[in-house]
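From: lab user (bench 3)
To: helpdesk
Subject: output format question, protein + NAP

Hello, I'm new to running complex predictions and I'm not sure whether the block I got back is the full result or only part of it. Here's what I submitted:
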Amino acid sequence: MSPPLRLGIAGLGTVGAGVIRILQQDATLLTARTGRAIEIVAVSARNRDKDRGVDLSAYAWEDDPVALAGRDDIDLFIELMGGSDGPAKAATEAALAHGKDVVTANKAMLAIHGQALALQAEDAGCALRFEAAVAGGIPVVKCLTEGLAGNRMSRIMGVMNGTCNYILTRMETAGLPYDTVFQEARDLGYLEADPTLDVGGIDAGHKLALLASIAFGTQVDFGNVTLEGIERITIEDIHRAKDMGFRVKLLGVAQMTGRGLEQRMTPCMVPLNSPLGRLENAMNMVVLEGSACGQIVLRGAGAGEGPTASAVLSDVIDIARGLRLPTFGQPAASLTIATPAVAPTPARYYLRLHLHDKPGALARIATILGNQGISIDRMRQYGHEEQSVPVLIVTHKTNREALNIAIDEFAGTGVLSDNPVAIRIENV
Ligand code: NAP
Ligand code: HSE
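Helpdesk reply: Thanks, we reran it on our side. This is the complete output you should expect:
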């Protein structure tokens, strides 16, 4: 039997406590699967006296996670504190500097410092793994780096923030406005300490940037992810979209185009009956498209104690088994710097307009679209409301620049009673 794998765990919150619970409950199973014992040696968090629902009495305590990371009696440092910088980054760097392998669930840190940390890990001959950072319990990092390693990936799509999917689902099913459902999500403990990370698309954008790096062999480039949150999605658009056969999702798309790497995390419409359209509540879904495998759809819980701890354990088990893959699936020094695509791939768009009910109003709009080369696929005019008439237009494929020009020109017509809304329809 190999010697035990000795762990130091920094961060004893939702994920940290979950990891300890599995290690305590399933020690025999894990040893059978790895051929060695996996032992927790020392732990760290801010508050030593907090009850975390797991017995910590057998482990050494370190107030300072950096000191924990450098201890001589640990082989693997598990970072579960969070935050892109501060103690998480300092402790990760310290662990690698001391020759320790590192497992983290920290997408914020890796989306910003992933390349530098991966280089440091490889220089030190250490593993740096992050399955839990993307889509919680869904083993998507493993799927890309191992199962699909024989493919040229063409596109990755996904709903990767459970909180946003929960909010959008509740708005539709309960008919409640965004602010009410946002508060509900807060009461349920779904929101990050800084909720803009969730609803602003930043958390999901971090995850997309990490997957894009593995899929396309490029350095993580979170700075070039086009981000738009769900704060401006109204219940009207959710219901009108459904009428037209679509559902609104905060959707991530990364694809390598002839114009460069396109990375977007924005509200999109997807067909109601597509797997993404049917994804409800706080679930995540990742769709991977490869040259040989075709389309692969992965669905599961993207957050929470059990699913996230499951993903952390997957990395721990790999390291216990001696499986040491590069952080982003190939040596960090070989990752290229992608040219960011300046404009999104042409797509169909959903347009929601409120028009004054007077002769020629619709004709003015149709003319402007026509002048920009934008063809109308479908259109629906609803009954007269208090001030105006709601009109929905689904366009044929067009480029966003032409649509933006058209929308600017709408403003000069005097026929609109409200700002228009344009939402991309993703071909899924
Ligand atoms: P959490 O419940 O807020 O726990 C954070 C832990 O870190 C707490 O135990 C806290 O100590 C400790 N901590 C914070 N600052 C520290 C410091 N300076 N020194 C020592 N300990 C410190 O967070 P979480 O939800 O478990 O998330 C942990 C990581 O997993 C984050 O990177 C997060 O993005 C990622 N993640 C979470 C989920 C999820 O569903 N929760 C899913 C995927 C990924 P105290 O308890 O003493 O305050
Ligand atoms: N806030 C994230 C979500 C947690 O809602 O999906 C998991 O990363």
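A quick orientation on your result: The chain has a mean pLDDT of 96. Let us know if anything else is unclear.
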